[in-house]
Amino acid sequence: xxxxxxxxxxxxxxxxxxxxxxxxxxxxxxxxxxxxxxxxxxxxxxxxxxxxxxxxxxxxxxxxxxxxxxxxxxxxxxxxxxxxxxxxxxxxxxxxxxxxxxxxxxxxxxxxxxxxxxxxxxxxxxxxxxxxxxxxxxxxxxxxxxxxxxxxxxxxxxxxxxxxxxxxxxxxxxxxxxxxxxxxxxxxxxxxxxxxxxxxxxxxxxxxxxxxxxxxxxxxxxxxxxxxxxxxxxxxxxxxxxxxxxxxxxxxxxxxxxxxxxxxxxxxxxxxxxxxxxxxxxxxxxxxxxxxxxxxxxxxxxxxxxxxxxxxxxxxxxxxxxxxxxxxxxx
Length: 331
Prior knowledge:
There is one protein chain. The protein has nine helices and nine strands. By secondary structure, it is of the alpha/beta class. The chain has two domains: 213 residues, P-loop containing nucleotide triphosphate hydrolases (Rossmann fold, 3-Layer(aba) Sandwich); 63 residues. Strands 1, 2, 3, 4, 5, 6, 7, 8 and 9 form a nine-stranded mixed beta sheet that branches. The two termini are 19 Å apart.
């Protein structure tokens, strides 16, 4: 019997992961705050992790949002700690302004990797990445697995071009972050330095990918929140699957029925989460012991004047083991 389950495709409710990229001077912090306000609909539910020398406080006139100042060293671990601090405080939206420092700031991945290469890998930076990459990945996981909506800002490298009307213009070329950072995001918006207009370079929502350039506002956040709420509630679905499995485990009367429940549980562990899955495994073990206790036949009575079977050794001198009626193990 296969442990895989085929189901109808459904869009789940999930936390939004939004990236904003622009060259310096594009107004990234201001736009991120407006976007967050539209998603949360309450300034007090927004926390801004500020790595930009106090820029997070410049717009305090907008509303009563919170600021967490993150200073060097900008290690992945310090970013992760800041994210968890905001989560534990109960905020709904976290703005990380910016993620560039985790990669290219003092104490960030590039600097740390170079130091590691010189001290432990004889100058071999390639080998040093075997230690640095997992630390960076932990930072990525902290964002994508956060219990909050997250908005990240990133600086981009700039170049100067001449427009058709002979004017000089600065344009953003590439985010100052590790390549591939945007792959995990729901939406990636690139902002023009002069017009502050946004265009989508990645859009899993389908709301902005073909839209004309637009200026980010609270309405942008509201549109994203409404799109997100239209999906299937992930937590409610987790509870439904968990309750269904628990009901079937308790109703199982044979080891075969219990084994079927165990195979279903293995295929649903990712859906319901490790904590719930572990609790259901314990329930299976308990129910398995109850079933075996009620189905084990009584030992036959020993005939008078007959030696007990345990006194009659096997030819090898050892008592043969009694085979277990069912060898599968849900633990």
